[in-house]
Amino acid sequence: MTVVETDRIEMADESDELTLDMMFERLERMPVPEGFKVEIVEGTIYISPQRDTHWDTIYDILDQLRPRYSRRQLKSDVRIDYPGDLNGFASDVIALAEGATKNDKGRWRTQDVEFVGEVISKGTAANDYGPKKAAYATAEVPVYLIVDPYTAQCRLHLMPKDGKYHVETLLDFGVDVDLTDTPVGLTLTTGAFPRD
Question: CA 35 to CA 110: how far, in whole Å?
């Protein structure tokens, strides 16, 4: 999607410092096509299409989390602002702690996020493995799972402290993701995850 040059000038002239709210307000006025996901990572806007493989994997994860989490505790593509400069993520899968509350802006608080799952898209994979992983670790999200349908592998990140995850496990599709010793408290099966 292209931003018109006059919009860039208007945005630059209004303020020396853009906020996430300002950026998202402008995005809401733009014609983002149905089926596209929008998020802001380190101040850069990413608009990416959702594929069947992507959605099928998200749905599979959400379905497996349902025995532990109520429907209202599970979110997909809902904006949460994470630590760092202009990080407004719309994570693929979020599981919130029981009793989670919204902040004064009406958004879910990072301290209530117990699980984040991201399904890799080719165009935005670097975000999931880089700045988003760092932001989740800084926010101390206990469990961060990256599902990569291109390599048919999952990367499980645990023990966030001091802005990084101290445990990383690589699992091939077909190997269970054991989360029983985490706040999630269950095991995810990966054998049915679709591949690209």
Answer: 25
